[in-house]
Design goal:
The complex is a heterodimer of chains A (289) and B (430). Chain A is mainly α. Chain A has 15 helices and no strands. Chain A has helices at 3-11, 14-46, 51-55, 69-77, 80-111, 115-127, 132-145, 152-157, 163-176, 179-187, 192-203, 205-220, 224-229, 238-242, 253-285. In chain A, helix 5 packs antiparallel against helix 12, helix 9 (163-176) runs antiparallel to helix 12 and helix 12 (205-220) packs antiparallel against helix 15 (253-285). Chain B has 430 residues and is of the alpha+beta class. Chain B is built from 18 helices and 16 strands. Chain B has helices at residues 3-26, 45-54, 71-81, 95-103, 112-119, 126-131, 154-159, 169-179, 203-214, 234-249, 260-265, 277-285, 313-326, 329-339, 350-355, 360-363, 380-395, 404-424; strands at 33-39, 62-68, 90-94, 133-134, 137-138, 141-147, 149-153, 181-182, 188-190, 220-223, 226-229, 271-274, 291-294, 299-308, 342-343, 370-372. In chain B, helix 2 links the parallel strand 1 and strand 2 (62-68). Chain B is globular, with a radius of gyration of 26 Å. In chain B, 42% of the residues are buried. The chains are: A mainly alpha (289), B alpha+beta (430). Chain A binds chain B through residues 51-52, 54-57, 137, 140-141, 144, 149, 224, 227-228, 231-233, 240, 243-250, and chain B through 36, 38, 40-43, 65, 67-71, 73, 76-77, 80-81, 84, 86, 88, 146, 258, 261-262, 265-266, 268, 275, 277, 281, 284-287.
């Protein structure tokens, strides 16, 4: 660097240097954000393109001759709304079940310590490292024996409890809820259920919100389990339904993009509504799934 | 009418309704029946619905559900549903996948009338009827097949001064040199012949097998009831050498260049080998493309898909009736014209070929044209995947093209791995 340049650089005030640094960071973050958003943007743009335009090379970013045919086709030719409804029902019920089981178990494991409970917690924690695919097949046979194939209840059986959720709530309970608070409630004559419902659950709102988002997306994006449990088109979840836009050797990119764009709406809405809980929960545990 | 009369009328109506219900329940063949078709090709759904619609006159109470999902997912479902007796009544399965279910007794034998239909040479070549036969008993009705042909861009051929498709493997290489388009630096921008050089899974090995068949070879050879790797020989060497020369000597194609149907439709390659579904794909995505098809020099791989049933009793009867209806000539013509898959039954398809000449190469092949299929043995997927992984490594090794000995050593190592898998499974021929 020349002497003149060195002197110019050293002449910058600390405030200006800070501003330049901030601007550089903003620029880098902006570029990364755009890079992350581009696939999403292309997905939506592709939904408005004809098969011929989708084939063009290099690909067009904005549709040249926008068409709604893909949307008309996916809504008219497939039970897309039924699939979304199935997914929504499945995800909501699974979320409720996981939040409930995690809250109760996490509280018990966090505040009621004895050897048996500790051993039970260790077993539950150990199940977290067993991939779902390992016990998916025996679970399938159980669901089949119960006559629950092609039903929302059959789907739910695999998604009622989340060991990670139990761990998350337990850690939160240990770290943030003092024993004295529970003792004080007991001295005042409160029953255990009342303490849980009126004292503990309100304090767990943040991590339970984060867990709800994780549980919802886990069920919403599930593929392998709904694929084998739901074999009639009417009982598909949206993830399984989207697979139908693939033929023997090709993918119907236009209709797939249109269906995927429509499906984004509920999940993006839920994330927007619960984003504060999600960020708070992840930040407070240092974990993410 | 007084209240007593009203009660009496209601009673008669209720009695008639109950009697009608009892009669309907006891009516036997006339009672409503529901069967389900499981397919691994979503594009086949309209075909099956059409078949079901056509059956309404003869089977007015029959309801047919069609559940189609992509092939890999279809296979996963069957693997769970067949042993637990919760699969559909008509299953569309390739022979290779059906073998294990046949051995386990999960797919049922066809009734005599269906067996006679399948065994009749007027309906099916022996190649197809044998594929539908297990331990001497017909267990399926052949429906359609995947079969390769050459697709070539006629505009690019004319520009290169070529009047017709290549007829020998040597011509494939010569034509590819003439057809390759290059930029100012000599780098290929449009491949002369799109070879499968990269991508996932066993497709690379399958495409290699197709090319090797033209040189008179095959990946595996059957000896008695066992198998042996058979590509470490002259046919294998010629095939791999052609790939390597195309990449490193002629430079008509590279692993990085766009390939397959999309590349052909975008005019990024002048010719490639694929199944008949590409005809329909071109019609949708690149309707203005000027192209033609031609048979391969010696023959083609054939992947046949049959209809099977795991059901018994009345459901099985309806399932076999459906399989037979699917094979009616007007349905098969519709299948080729609208879906693009080739029917296995011998039917007159001339009207469709006249309207869509690109199907011609798939149906009007030379008399001595050969067909081969991949062995229906348990470890075939693993064998193909392993061979494919080795081939990808080989295609990226410029040293191989310098010496036949190196190619032979490469093939020998790959064949030894294949034989090792066969031995592990108790399938290796001595």
């Amino acid at each position: 660097m020349s002497d003149a340049a060195t002197s110019r650089s050293s002449a910058l005030s600390p405030a200006t240097r800070q501003r330049v640094t901030d601007l550089a960071i903003d620029a880098v973050l902006l570029i990364f954000s755009l890079a992350m958003l581009l696939p999403l943007f292309l997905l939506v743009a592709n939904a408005f393109k004809s098969p011929q335009e989708l084939l063009q090379w290099p690909p067009t970013i904005l549709p040249r001759a926008g068409t709604l045919d893909n949307f008309r086709s996916v809504i008219g030719d497939t039970p897309l709304l039924q699939w979304v409804l199935n997914s929504f029902l499945f995800a909501i019920l699974s979320t409720i079940a996981i939040v409930a089981t995690s809250a109760i178990s996490g509280y018990v494991f966090g505040k009621f310590r004895n050897r048996l409970i500790n051993a039970l917690f260790a077993i539950i924690l150990a199940t977290a490292i067993v991939p779902f695919e390992v016990y998916m097949i025996p679970l399938y046979f159980n669901v089949q024996k119960l006559g629950l194939l092609n039903s929302i209840w059959g789907l739910l059986i695999g998604y009622l409890v989340m060991s990670f959720g139990i761990f998350l709530i337990r850690q939160y309970v240990i770290a943030t809820i003092p024993d004295e608070l529970i003792e004080a409630a007991r001295i005042d004559g409160a029953g255990e259920f009342w303490i849980f419902w009126k004292v503990i659950v309100p304090l767990l709102r943040g991590p339970l919100g984060a867990l709800a988002v994780l549980a919802f997306f886990q069920a919403w994006t599930a593929f392998a389990w709904p694929l084998i449990i739901a074999t009639t088109k009417e009982s598909y979840t949206i993830e399984v339904g989207l697979a139908l836009f693939q033929t023997g050797f090709t993918v119907d990119l236009g209709r797939l993009s249109a269906a995927a764009a429509l499906v984004l709406v509920p999940s993006v809405t839920l994330f927007a509504v619960l984003r504060r809980n999600f960020v708070q929960g992840v930040a407070s545990t240092g974990f993410r799934e | 009418m007084d209240i007593r009369g009203l009660r009496s009328t209601r009673g008669i109506r209720a009695g008639v309704a109950v009697a009608a219900l009892v009669f309907a329940a006891l009516a036997g063949p006339a009672r409503a029946q529901e069967i389900t078709v499981w397919s691994g090709y979503p594009e086949m759904e309209p075909f099956y619905k059409r078949v079901a619609e056509g059956m309404k006159a003869k089977y007015p109470n029959l309801k047919v559900n069609v559940q189609a999902i992509p092939l890999r997912e279809h296979e996963k479902r069957m693997a769970l549903a067949l042993p637990s007796n919760s699969a559909g009544d008509i299953l569309e399965i390739q022979l290779g996948s059906a073998q294990r279910y046949l051995e386990a007794g999960l797919l049922k034998e066809a009734p005599a009338a269906v067996a006679s239909f399948v065994k009749d040479p007027a309906n099916f070549d022996a190649f197809f009827s044998n594929e539908a036969t297990f331990e001497g008993k017909v267990s399926a009705v052949p429906l359609f097949r995947g079969q390769g042909s050459l697709f070539y861009n006629t505009e690019m051929f004319a520009a290169a001064g070529l009047s017709g498709p290549p007829k020998t493997m040597a011509e494939y290489s010569e034509f590819a040199k003439k057809l390759t388009q290059r930029d100012a630096s000599g780098k290929a921008t449009v491949s002369g012949w799109s070879l499968r050089l990269s991508g996932g899974g066993q497709g690379i090995a399958e495409k290699f097998a197709i090319n090797m068949f033209q040189f008179g070879g095959s990946l595996l050879t059957k000896k008695g009831d066992k198998w042996q790797a058979s590509f470490a020989n002259e046919a294998g060497r010629n095939t791999l050498k052609q790939y390597l020369q195309s990449i490193y000597v002629d430079k008509t194609v590279t692993p990085e260049m766009p390939a397959d149907a999309d590349a052909f439709e975008r005019k990024q390659t002048a010719m490639f080998i694929r199944e008949s579904w590409v005809v329909g794909d071109i019609a949708t995505k690149a309707p203005d493309l000027k192209y033609a098809t031609a048979p391969l020099p010696r023959g083609s791989i054939v992947a046949t898909v049959h209809l099977w049933t795991p059901s018994t009793g009345a459901k099985a009867e309806a399932a076999w009736a459906f399989a037979m209806a699917a094979n009616e000539p007007q349905n098969l013509s519709w299948l080729l014209e609208n879906v693009g898959w080739l029917p296995n039954r011998k039917v007159d398809l001339s009207a469709i070929i006249k309207a869509k000449p690109a199907f011609g190469a798939f149906v009007n092949y030379p008399k001595e044209y050969g067909f081969f299929t991949l062995p229906a043995i348990g470890p075939i997927d693993e064998i193909l995947t392993r061979i494919a992984a080795r081939l990808v490594a080989g295609f990226g090794d410029p040293e191989l093209v310098k010496s036949d000995d190196k190619i032979d050593a490469f093939l020998k190592a790959a064949a030894a791995e294949t034989d090792g898998i066969l031995q592990r499974e108790g399938l290796l021929a001595k």
